[in-house]
Amino acid sequence: MGKWKVQGDSAAGGMLLLGVATFLLLFCSISAPIIDTVRMFRLVVNINGYKRYADFGIWGYCVPPIKTGKRTSLPNFDPSVIEGCSKSSLGYTVGSVVASSLRAPALETALSKVHTAALVLVPVATGLAFIAFVLSVSVFFTSRSKSIGAPAGVKTITGIFIFNSFATLVSIIAFVVQITVVATIKGRISKIRATNGNLTLNWDNMIWLMVIAIICQIMNMVVLFSTRNGLVAHEKHEQKTVSKTSRKNNDLPPLIHDKVHSGEKAYDGSVP
């Protein structure tokens, strides 16, 4: 019963952590321009007292209209500015659209397609996290239903731990790629600010979603490691119990030992 309890409690915690991680990574995978409210970073420039934004995500960018209020936008009178979102693509550059909108021509070559194409690791990490989540769900329901077989053993939990470690590593690498992308364009902006002091860069919500997702994955690995250690300790305890029982039986006199193993009552020498 102890083995079932160890797995049931830890599997529930691991399932919850991986569910949260998968959900957050999924949001990161469908960031701008698919969902323009999920952004890796935002470029901001002040134009005639109004702020012009350019939002960047995994697959491209968006140039929203200049807002004069919560629900009102300023009409675009500049023919060189194209408002809206780019097409989703694997790898992109800042391009002339964003550079013209922010009045910073030097931004056009700030990012390379090869560099931003590496952001595809984010949806890859999402897929791996989902598989890890499915594995944790299977362990949870296995620990809840004894009728479908024995609980997962040490080898199974170890295998799941190794896979989750790989999934977490991919998430960390994807996060590092994001940081390098933002750091690259931030370095270019530092040079541009010498001539255009209004241009700034803001880290955005996608970075923090990735951080929380990775923390959840690491916490799940701790849970799995603890579960594995608990199962190892439980199996050692069972082996010791079986060994002690066997040793006691072997210490009995030969006649009594045979009677005990044959299920017969041993004669103790007393007169009935």
From TrEMBL:
Residues 256-272 have a biased composition (Basic and acidic residues). It is found in: Membrane. The keyword Transmembrane applies. Residues 236-272 are annotated as: Disordered. One of its GO terms (cellular component) is plasma membrane. Keywords: Membrane, Transmembrane, Transmembrane helix. The chain crosses the membrane at residues 12-35, 117-141, 161-185, 205-226. It comes from the Eukaryota. It is a multi-pass membrane protein. This is SUR7/PalI family-domain-containing protein. It comes from Crucibulum laeve.
